[in-house]
Specification:
Helices cover about 65% and strands about 0% of the residues. With about 180 residues, the chain is mainly alpha-helical. The chain has one domain (about 20-155). Helix 1 runs antiparallel to helix 2 and helix 2 runs parallel beside helix 5. The chain is globular, with a radius of gyration of 23 Å.
Amino acid sequence: MKKDRSTIVNKEPLVPNWEESDFAKTVDGQIMLMVKKAISNGHFVEAQMLSWSTIDQILMPRLIGWIANTLKLKLPKGLHKLNAQSINMFYLAISHDTPLFGKLEEARKSRNKITHQLVSLGVVTKINEVSKGSTKSNILLQQEIMKRFNGEILIPSINLYRSGWNDGLDGVIKMLEKGSPE
């Protein structure tokens, strides 16, 4: 029996289309699809605002909540009402993660600069290049945040907690509460 090789046209492996993945059906995936569409249509200010909103409204609250849960911290009420700079400072306070804090502040300042230019100039085309670079930085920042979730980059306060720092402090506090032996 002779094999029919006419059906084998392309020997390259199929590359999965992430737009059809389960991730693309999530809120995060839908936002990434919007960012991708904005970039492909040359709407860099829109892409920048979407990418920053993902950091500000989705990823940072999740990261702060995860750290607080891991460290058994009770988050203050009204935390969600704070501005971006205060949220970044709060993140630094509970995480001691100065590298990510610096990148968050840089992205926030870039966002502010673009917003002020947009308001003062009123023309998107003049700030498209700045927005393009800022969008790229925001996407890289999102990757940095995700590396903290999956453990590629350790969060200093959680690392201290895991190595027994809090347990050691609890022991010292209990000893002090009992009083010194006489």
